[in-house]
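Posted in: Protein Modeling Q&A

I'm a second-year student putting together a small comparison for a lab meeting, and my supervisor asked me to include a predicted structure for peptidyl-tRNA hydrolase. I've never done this before, so apologies if this is the wrong subforum. The sequence is pasted below exactly as I got it from our records. If anyone can share the structure token output, I'd also love a short note on what stands out.
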Amino acid sequence: MSPPGLLRAGLWRSPAMRRCVLEPRPPGKRWLVAGLGNPGLPGTRHSVGMAVLGQLARRLGVAESWARDRRCAADLALAPLGDAQLVLLRPRRLMNANGRSVARAAEMFGLTAEEVYLVHDELDKPLGKLALKLGGSARGHNGVRSCISCLNSSAMPRLRVGIGRPTNPEAVQAYVLGCFSPSEQELLPLLLDRATDLLLDHIRERSQGPSAGVSP
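Accepted answer (user: helix_wrangler)
Welcome! Here is the predicted structure, written out as tokens:
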């Protein structure tokens, strides 16, 4: 008989995800980390959030554990982090609808907006600059705007990954949907490593807070 929790989460149909979920859940907090982007467009500036998620999965040893979940239209991977558990998510919807996948996954795993991390590109920071922002407005980012709308909250922590802004304002759309240049690609490995470090350090610190032992 399939466990009721898995049926509620809509994960029972996925054998790869089932292997992850059937392992005993760590006693601490659970966090969702979503890499925003456009599915099928790897290597573009607008999907750098998904690239960070790929590096995070490799760091946590779950790069081969991604499983598609149709209920939230996303690829998911579960990873332990000390006593906490991370739910890694890559939406299979376009950027403007990423929030539907994020909100559905948060519902499935019983998480609040404060327990959902968004990783996304940031035009107003040069390539290589990172900033971890706690809540606030979408600042013109359509993926973040979608998440705010679907979660009905702006409290999500966000890792903003700088991609720089083109000098011609009319070229923004082509710029964000374009691939990184060869010189920019040389900077990416270090950038992805630093982004992963920043995320993990922040999550570890929050997991050790006063509410770390309380399950959502």
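A couple of things worth pointing out for your meeting: The two ends are 25 Å apart (CA to CA). The longest strand covers residues 74-81.
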